[in-house]
Design a protein that fits this description.
The structure holds 2 protein chains of 2 kinds. By secondary structure, chain A is an all-beta fold. Chain A contains no helices and 11 strands. In chain B, a hairpin with a 6-residue loop joins strand 5 and strand 6. Classes of the chains: A mainly beta, B mainly beta.
Amino acid sequence: DTAVSQTPKYLVTQMGNDKSIKCEQNLGHDTMYWYKQDSKKFLKIMFSYNNKELIINETVPNRFSPKSPDKAHLNLHINSLELGDSAVYFCASSPEPAIGEGTGELFFGEGSRLTVL
Amino acid sequence: AQKITQTQPGMFVQEKEAVTLDCTYDTSDQSYGLFWYKQPSSGEMIFLIYQGSYDEQNATEGRYSLNFQKARKSANLVISASQLGDSAMYFCAMREGSYTSGTYKYIFGTGTRLKVLA
């Protein structure tokens, strides 16, 4: 069973289109994230949600709208796609840190490669 | 200002030798976590090792060890006995902020591409 799963793995679309990426985690974590990895491999946080509530929005254009229907799901919808949106989008989740126990590392999905033509 | 700095964009190492990947960080938090991830060419992110800010001993996981120097704010990854399969991008990351106040996040460095030579 995949812990954090994203669909689709690949997306090729035209400028101006709207697309969505879905993410689900079965780890029981309260916090989920979206990261963008650009062509230079730089990983930048976009959003984080804790128990369906938006916690972090890192000055992402409002063409990007995350939605969390429940704490196991965090979807990303992108309107009016631009060339610069081409990247790999990673969903991730993390547990609440427990002092003295565990590491609280990020668990990543496999990534969704978006190509905008 | 960069919160996580990895100054080596690329490194080469001979198979079976040890290699150190550098990472320095910047935070004013007292409690934080430091992580290393590996990203092979297939693209997935693989967690390697963790060091908590209060941990007095350096973390080790198999062939990976983390050289934690808190005063210098460095968290270098040491890979011993390199293998061809270690060729990948390596990312240093820091978890900072407060979970209860909702400022909790993980910040990544720019990565180091390691190539292991046969």
